[in-house]
Amino acid sequence: MKYKYIIFFISLFGLILTSKSQDSKKITNKFFPDFDITIPTPAFKKNKGFTKYDEMMLFLDDLVNKYPKLISYEFIGTSQKGKEIPIVYIGNQTDYKTKVAFMGGLHGNEPASTEGMLFLIHNLIKEDSLKHLKEKLSIAIIPMANIDGYEKQDRYAANGQDLNRDQTKFTNQESIYIKKAINKFSPDVMVDFHEYKPYKVDFVKYGEYGVTQMFDVMFLYSGNLNVSSSIKEVTENLFLKKVEPFLDKHELKYHNYVSSKHKNNAIYFNLGSVSPRSSATSYALSNTISLLMEVRGVGLNRDSFNRRVFTTYLLSYSFLNTSVNHAHEIQLALEKANNFNDEIIIKYKKEKSGYTLNMIDIYENKLIPVDVTLYNGLKCKPVLTRRRPNYYVIENELNEVASKLSVLGLDIDTLKFDELLEVESYKITSLKKSPVLFQGFYENIINTELYTTKKVFKKGTFIVPMNQKRSNLAIETLEPEMLSGFLRFNVIKPDDVNKIHRYVLNKEL
Ligand SMILES: [Zn+2]
Fold first, then answer.
1. In the predicted model, what is the mean pLDDT of residues 451-467?
2. Same-domain pairing of 288 and 399
3. I need a surface site. Which of 132, 265, 379, 438 has the fewest CB within 10 A?
4. Is the entire prediction scored with pTM above 0.70?
5. Residue 257 C-alpha to ligand 1 middle, in angstroms?
6. Residues with a beta carbon under 5 angstroms from ion ligand 1
């Protein structure tokens, strides 16, 4: 038993050092062969490495120079190392049915995402069979979101932070530029393309000498209970249902996203996403149809790269088609999402169950069933709820909070006069620091209770109306117990919790 762990670790570190693929030839040949298609993007013009930033810009400039009526781009800001981040616009920017935004390369070591976006851009411009998409849709694409990471094929931004854990606290400039650009475009549908890591140390426990994930792609979407059920419905029953036949046709294997976690010597799996610190839930909370695609790829270097890029392309192509063919259903779902529930969910519990996952036995080179414990983020139950306020009232000193909320795309007003208001305020009942360091700090774990009070609020006090499209993001950031909230992430110090209030009366402020 011990022997097999040692072998596994030696081979794993060996692979990391030589930057070879973690898939053996026999696994690649049997399960993940490339397709017989030519992909005319920069990485495929060379045998090693991936598209560099300059190569991407040449590729885009070439298209813009040749087809200035069909494609344009602008820079949304710079990376930490000063490289300008492009957003590409294609399609009908005035008379469209649906607006769709795509992103690739938020994690710098997930190259099929960026390459897939470049392939899509190319085909949208050059392939006649895609003509209907650019005629009927307004499309925005950020092909390389984390340029500094991408240049080194490293997951993180230049400062070592994970940009897909930064979508409520905004401690990276890239996160702010991207959020502002996407909100300005204001898509109906937003898809963030990634790659996942098919080999994990956890998996050595299973099979003869360990197993690897078998899915070409896993679908990640939000099970957060504050996300409108109409958004979840259209994501599951329309977008994902329609993508399946495309994948089946090419014998690409798929599953809802599962990730493994290690805790107290046991391994368990999580299904789905609930946390607004990452993109799938962040955009779903802003009443946008939101998906995150995880293509099998991290650690595989150039193995199956053509297959991975084609898979990414196929997904994006399907989502665009669905956006054209079901424009009316999409608009109805988005309208419905703006009727908010009276209750908001502060704490929840994921459904726990046994689950059988098919995986590839590395030694036997065949699929085997693996029994796992699954926490289902797509089936959460509320544990603590509160009444939805009509406004959050934020005292002036917390202007940092107001500015982060406006990055999130929320409209914020201020009181025009000093005003006496009856509000609900928070009292902390317990407070401790998380024992684990997260992105350079320890999270605050807080519990509060509400009390009703009357207070004079000064002219200029920030008020956040809760009848707006992105208001669910205010809930997830301002309620003190929230797992990706401002208090949790120290954007608001625990001492300042008494400067945030809830207005629940039925009067307009
Ligand atoms: Zn990723």
1. 98
2. no
3. 265
4. yes
5. 12
6. 107, 110, 194
